[in-house]
């Protein structure tokens, strides 16, 4: 009896071994076959982003390690060949002055992103260049030095990038020629550019807000809005061709432009302007300007269909508003030009045109003052610097600035993408994103090499492409539509399977451990 | 303005002085090629059909290239918002129709304008697109529907491959053009409402603020028993410069007494006893009232019909702005013109409202039942489901030709969703005259989730006959995620379109009309089913797993072997103790009794 009982309590060693092996084989199957299959079938595809490479493209790194360096060559046309020492003197003075400007900027605006840009000016002797002066005045900075009997002065040509300094005996005698050249370049020729990168005063963000968001494509829409419904027409095609084409030809050097126009009748104001007896006119107060545009009613929506262009297009609305006869004349308070800018949106000009007195047709000449005001507003909206007078130099400055800004934005996009992919572990990363990231990196490299070699216009276009690519990487459709499957739901679905299975396995484990003892 | 002198002063002033001579020639502008018209047609039993027509020509529209500066798109009357469709895609024609309600052809006759501008229930869009292949055409179509969807606040973005058909015979014949495709899609479920009217009115040069369009109001329009809005954009006839012609139509059927009532009190209230109009020839007292036959005396103004007045006259455009009246002599129509000089009454319609400052129309009749002779269509078509099963069903289409001597030639077009699997071999005509009646069949079978089924039949319906056509179909199960919200409501089928081919010898136009839409109920699962299935299968799997696991792990011991062991079992000992106690207490109780 005693023997029998012990045999009941304790199985044979062989049987226990078999049982343990069976148990372990279950655990093995679950761990090494079940779990991998489960992980494999429920995993989300994540392409491997080149994280190391992206972090290498940190914008501040690019600036401080001199990867981006902008070097502007200025060809100096010296009156005589024995003035070579003057060139090297001026160069030293420019370098010193620039260094102090940069230092001052870093102190006053320590957080300004472009503070550490490697930006320099190199003076070259025009006559020592080979081949000799076959240099295009519209593409290269040329500085002529000329002697004059009168007062010392300077002149910047509005038709090219050429400028002239007139020096006098007085300056030569006091040995100030080199200083004069340096002052001219830093304080007049390229002052606006220096102000972009190395602002000397505390920065205010106000100015930046007005500028339309830079995009590779711009769409400008001219609208004639009329408060009444009688006949009215404008010769916009001719006015545009004559007055605005030159400006647009410049603008197209760094961006793609499209333009259209429309006339809208019965465009009534959404509020009643107040009548001012002293001016004998209706007055639009500054506070009314914010609500001037009647978005519900005025059909100002802009849309383009071409593939992918919508998100990379900046729209600028230029509105010529002719008030109805009941509210005419309409004047804007404190505005001599009777116009205003709507930041990042466009500009409005109010024209008091009486169709019964002036006729129904706005001719090209009638539109001249309007187009002048529009030109000024377009320049502001595009963020063109106000100085110097030469449009060539102004566009050049903007081109360089935009290229660097685009690089900054692209890198910003990429690093946001990287942060996003690292912080959201269950977001899908399709191969397309990877492709766009690689494209962006390539294009940034290209832009930098163009900028370093002085090909600013191509550099700007390349940087635009980089921005488009980085945007497509970040706003990839498949990535944005994240699979939303809350954890509770997963638990609810798995628990009927995992609950019983694991309980059985756990009890099995206890039994096996008992046996083992 | 100092900042622009590089531009203006240097480039412009010189140039302008040169151009000043040309300036006089350049200032001769065209007036706007816009026209509008409102036709009022009284119908029997105090109904009235109001048809608004707006016609517009565009200047030439050219394709925009992004690489160069173009300013060829100067929009005047033609709305700029529609421009991108023709600038950036190869769409050549566009027809968009919104409609709701029921038009009873047996009562009111033919649809206005031969049905050319009246849609079926919901939203209908068709367009011709120039493309090298069908795929390319479809890609353009997708751009188009997405664009229109945003523009008209309608869910046209749900148009995809599964709802798009390519009609062969129904509309114009595209085979005469190389590489031209005609695509059509219908959203029968779409509720047409004010959100669609507002963008519609904004396309008008007057934006609904002047002329006859100022009469249009969402509440009144969508209150009517039948209404249809359409936009049709076609290349202008005899023009090679890319000019377009746009016509916008709004047709609405107004029930005059109910509209009066609506404006009197927008929230319906029961009529008080003494205001009831009872038939004097029948018994009537406090409890009984047989309604009198409809009112015959009518007198109203435009304001009573539309709730609004014509606000401004239409000043834009060289075209006319007219109000016409189409009826018999029993109706007295007078146009009231208010000018500074005084009120004058103009008796003769049509009225040109362009000429007057303030304008109103007065309509009076003593015999409202006497209307213009109704022009009935040559054919009536109705469509219904047959069968009662969840997995299959049938469709019966009845063609009725009431004419005693004329046969009717027509094209019958139907597009069916892919989840209706139709069997063409079951298509039969009750009279067994297939060869005489069916002239041509174009059938495109559906492909699951890719393409809808399409039937296009050319038929000749003999005079004085009623012919019914049947076919059968299977209903298929959809995937879980394919069911729309509220799937038990059913699935709307597109209204089928009938084109009655006009007799060219009598210079008749083709007449278009649409049947009603049908509501198909599909076998619909319980939507918690997948979870139930998962949970149930999991439980079964866990059970099997547990059994197998236990079989493999547990030790088997015979019953005899366990007996000796059982005495030592704690549970058994406890049970024994308990039983003994129980017995003793029962015995105690008994002895006490």
From TrEMBL, chain A:
Pathway: Glycolipid biosynthesis; glycosylphosphatidylinositol-anchor biosynthesis. GO terms for biological process: attachment of GPI anchor to protein; GPI anchor biosynthetic process. It holds the Pfam family PIG-S. It is found in: Endoplasmic reticulum membrane. It comes from the Eukaryota. Keywords: Endoplasmic reticulum, Glycoprotein, GPI-anchor biosynthesis, Membrane, Transmembrane, Transmembrane helix. It is a multi-pass membrane protein. The chain crosses the membrane at residues 20-40, 491-513. GO terms for cellular component: GPI-anchor transamidase complex. Belongs to the PIGS family. This is GPI transamidase component PIG-S. It comes from Ascoidea rubescens DSM 1968.
Automatic annotation (TrEMBL), chain B:
The keyword Ribosomal protein does not apply. Keywords: Membrane, Transmembrane, Transmembrane helix. The chain crosses the membrane at residues 531-553. GO terms for cellular component: GPI-anchor transamidase complex. It comes from the Eukaryota. One of its GO terms (biological process) is attachment of GPI anchor to protein. This is Transmembrane protein subunit of the glycosylphosphatidylinositol transamidase complex. The lineage of its organism: Eukaryota, Fungi, Dikarya, Ascomycota, Saccharomycotina.
